Amino acid sequence: MFGRNNINLEKCFSIQTGAPVGQCRIVPVRLSSSPKKTFLAAYSAVFDVDPYVEMFFFPKDTLKLMLFDENGEVLWKRDLGEGIIPGVWFCPVLAFDLDGDSNDEIWYVGNTNPIHPLGVSGYTLDCLDARDGRLLKRLPWPHTDDGYRQSLSNQFRNFIVGGYAHGKPVLITVQGTYKDMFFEGYDSGLNRIWETFVSENAQGARGSHMCPVIVRTADGVDEL
Fold it and tell me: What confidence tens digit (pLDDT) does each residue in 13-61 have?
């Protein structure tokens, strides 16, 4: 029998979002300018929207971003608008320092065509300054304007992750789950340095709903 230890959980603070919270993701954010620990919340009043046709519904609220510190002070908020469907597969969010300035950037899937939230040709890779929420960079989201289309359930499954190769940061974007999957790696200048395609019939864990980044060997290169 393993010993049992009691764990007492205490509320540190509470933050009023101004609306009900049906979904919420919270990640730590590194800011060199702040002596306090900071966190990013991505939340919406609606439950997480899934792209599978039997699970999809039309959301009646938008996805919001909020940065706050360990004392509960809200540093900034940003409403991503009606063009971005509030769901972890439609809009993954990552805090990651790609440019090496010791401040994380906030990366997510944006949309330049807000009246067509399913219009993937307008999808973008957006980068915000974590210090104030300003839009810093925007690139076309890969494999949306080249005529390639998957089924609804597979087209809108996206990932954004970050890793390191010999000490240099690499941002990775991924499209697809279950069938065809596309992977792209970007350097600190947002130059695409590699691209990998895993077809529907190839071996691989395409049914996994995660893309973990781990260090398996001592060669100084993370693995996805």
Answer: 899 898 899 999 999 999 998 899 999 999 999 999 999 999 999 999 9
Please give the biggest Cα pair distance in the chain.
59
pLDDT of residue 82: 94
The string over 146-168, giving b where at least 16 C-beta atoms fall within 10 Å of a residue's C-beta and e elsewhere, is eeeebeebbbbbbbbbbbeeeee
Residues 6+ apart with CB under 8 A from 57: 49
Q: What is the pTM of this model?
A: 0.92
Q: Are strands 93-96 and 74-79 parallel, antiparallel or unpaired?
A: unpaired
The span from the CA of 32 to the CA of 81, in Å, is 29
Which token pair is 60? Answer: 């009646």
pLDDT, one tens digit per residue, over 153-186 is 888 999 999 999 999 999 999 999 888 889 999 9
